[in-house]
Specification:
The chain is mainly alpha-helical. It has 6 helices and no strands.
Length: 201
């Protein structure tokens, strides 16, 4: 692999890290990007759009898990990108109800059950989302070609589809959510480039 390709990938990974900072900033609040008075219908629409976009990233995460399970030798290359997609899923997931004003947070059975096994998550394990976000992808595993090159190309195509979907969705999103979707669309496009260039180099 040429040094130029390595440099390109390093630069794009730096760009991806910057985009990660943007998505963190966009999700610091617990609203849907609609500060000020809004109608209940607008809030519901923003939440539905967020759920749909989270599903887009979750499908992409499943694709990464399937490729890593079929081609574990690609882990060094794919794990950082997979980790970024896992963070996208978390960023897009609707905010969970937090503490009550009297300070007595009432944990739900599902949240308390999921927090216990995911506590030792400092080292992400291959093919699981818990190590990255605590929000694991679930669903039927996509089919993966036996040839690693073909599998990587399909993964790049899935990244491009996710990028396009986020770009289409941001047109209908409130400002904060639109900024988040723009960041994710750019990150997915960069991932597709890295996967394509990395395989062809």
């Amino acid at each position: 692999m040429g040094r130029t390709g390595t440099t390109r990938r390093g630069a794009l990974l730096a760009v991806g890290a910057a985009a990660g900072g943007l998505l963190t900033a966009c999700t610091d609040g617990d609203d849907d990007g609609s500060r000020g008075p809004t109608s209940a219908a607008a809030v519901r629409a923003a939440k539905a759009l967020r759920v749909k976009s989270a599903g887009t990233s979750r499908e992409l995460l499943l694709q990464y898990d399937a490729v890593l399970a079929r081609h574990p030798d690609q882990a060094t290359r794919l794990t950082p990108l997979r980790g970024a997609v896992a963070r996208h899923v978390t960023a897009l997931s609707p905010p969970q109800p937090s503490k009550k004003k009297d300070g007595s947070a009432k944990p739900s059975p599902s949240s308390s059950a999921s927090s216990a096994p995911s506590a030792p998550s400092s080292a992400p394990s291959l093919g699981t989302a818990a190590g990255d976000t605590g929000d694991g992808a679930s669903g039927p595993a996509p089919s993966v070609p036996a040839d690693p090159g073909a599998a990587i190309r399909e993964l790049a195509a899935a990244e491009r589809r996710a990028s396009d979907a986020h770009a289409d969705a941001l047109v209908h999103a409130p400002p904060e959510l639109a900024r988040l979707l723009a960041s994710l669309a750019a990150a997915d496009a960069a991932h597709a480039y890295l996967l394509t260039e990395g395989f062809s180099s």
